[in-house]
Specification:
This protein is mainly alpha-helical and 159 residues long. Helices cover 46% and strands 0% of the residues. It contains five helices and no strands. The termini are far apart.
Amino acid sequence: MSSISEVKGVGPTLAATLAGKGVDTAEKLISMPMDDLLAVPGVGPSRAKLLIENAKLIANNAGAAGNTVKKEKASKPVSEVRVKPVKAVQEKAVAPKPEETKVEEAKPEETASDKLGAGENKSRPTAKELRKEVKNRLAKLKKQKAKLKQAKKALKKAR
């Protein structure tokens, strides 16, 4: 049996809380009802799924070969990454005439997780990768905003 503290994403505080509920092994975490796991402070639906997946990995590895799995230092789950809010820009929308203004259609962006091949094992992007991706998207949005302002000025001049 594998200790609950071996499960990636379970720190000392969560381990103590789970132990108080009688869950002290990865196997017990796997069999714990989802409603009970969601009732634990700091555990939401996505984190609960992640904990159960990690517990299954630990249980399978320990049970299959009798090996102990070394616990890696867990980076913050995506749900715990804090991103500064961006002020919403509210402008009155003026619909340009199609023949006067031509705006390029936005192309779908490739995210950090999309860069992995289809056959490869997909892992969650790190907080650093997510921050970089948010920064890049904000820069693109600012450029698009500037283009829209120019188009708006051109429409005003045309009237």
